[in-house]
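Office hours follow-up: a student asked to see two folded examples consecutively, so here they are.
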Amino acid sequence: MAVSGANKLLYATYRPEAAEIPIILDVLPDPEFQKRLIQRESAFWKAVTDEDWSVFDHSVSDSLPDGFADLAAEWLDFQSMVETVKSEEKRLREALLSFLPEGEGMIKGAGLEVSRKYAKGSVDYSRLLQEIGFDTSTLDTYRKADTLRETIRKS
């Protein structure tokens, strides 16, 4: 898209074992991504022409477990697709919600229920406890067990 200047492209994927019809998504230009991509491609091409691979010294660690780099690249590609899908979902969501009247409302049909309603706000318990004079240092006696959080994100 950066080279052609296209305003959009269609990304299609078809896996007959997973679905009967292909998934087709509109992909819109992402100027910031295109800028980073061109910079990286330029650095790569300079390394090729100069035969200087030092630019890649920190991109892959020799200490990575076998198969990690391949899975990481696959995960990063998938995350790009997820971002595109989220963007398309947001566009469709906003378009569907635009059919609702101002304020609360609901439309049921075509396999969907689209609604808008108000809900009470959440309670700021920390502030409430402080205002009624509760000694917040005793909160740990009421705390549930710790949980393990596992995270994967772009670095």
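And the second, which I mentioned at the end of office hours:
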Amino acid sequence: MQKHRCGWCLGDPLYEAYHDNEWGVPLHDERLLFEFLVLETFQAGLSWITILRKRDNFRVAFDNFDYSIIANYGDAKKEELLQNAGIIRNKLKVNSAITNAQNFMKIQQEFGSFSTYIWSFVNDNPIKNNWPHYKDCPATTEISDRISKDLKKRGFKFVGSTVMYAFMQATGMVNDHEIGCFRYNEV
């Protein structure tokens, strides 16, 4: 018997594997939270499958998303990234990864961890929505608006409300699996 999945991931094995194993699972690991933050910012204006297909290249190019290393990238590393055909070569987004790494660590210093900070927006409890179809999901919410505004105030780049809502979905802060999806009650 075939499992029912959310409609957005159907037809691509990579998309389906991401949906089945990662999307919507509550995440507190600092490195993985930073990875999703970077990937979501690079995704702005592109499709998520484009990012997933380049994810391994991003991991290699960005030192496995070690924010303490990325925060110290200099001009030579920036240029290397901009020449790397395996990732999205956008100067503003490359620069934002560095700036965001620096600000990520400032949040860690202030709150003890980025996880503590980001999960406080949902009172440390995932929001479970009840969407019959993935197209019913909003692109932004009042919470993603607040997160975006606060991160921008702290100097983060490419963290608009739509990007932050996608981040919330990816990291399990919100469960937007379709109610008929086999993952809906598992995450």
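Two things to take away from it. Strands lie at 127-128, 174-175. The mean pLDDT is 96.
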